[in-house]
Design a protein that fits this description.
This protein is mostly helical and about 120 residues long. The chain is built from three helices and two strands; from the N terminus they run E-E-H-H-H.
Length: about 120
Amino acid sequence: MSETWSILVSNMQIDLNLFEALTEAGVKPETARRVEKRTESAFQNGLDAVRAELSTEVFTKADGARLEGQMKSDTARMEGQMKALEGQLKAGLADVKADLQRWFFITMITIIGAAATLTTILKH
């Protein structure tokens, strides 16, 4: 009644025949079966613990896809904010340009008026 214990780790299969090895070494079949079951359970628990730890420690393709989606979303949001800021900046510059043109025109009128007044005063 030999039983081979198979473990699938990733894509690699490991076949163990612990019961047969123990009985060949002179261990009673009942004891060999208990050792085999406990070893199988301990090994499986260890594998489960490693898998659980790796699931939180390893960067997976799904993690990459999720991160890529977040980055695209953040980039689109930032581009929208940049365009809004660009529009505000252009509007602000247009206001400054209009103010400068207005002050330039007022200053020119004032200079022409002052020059005309001085010319009139100096002729008399």
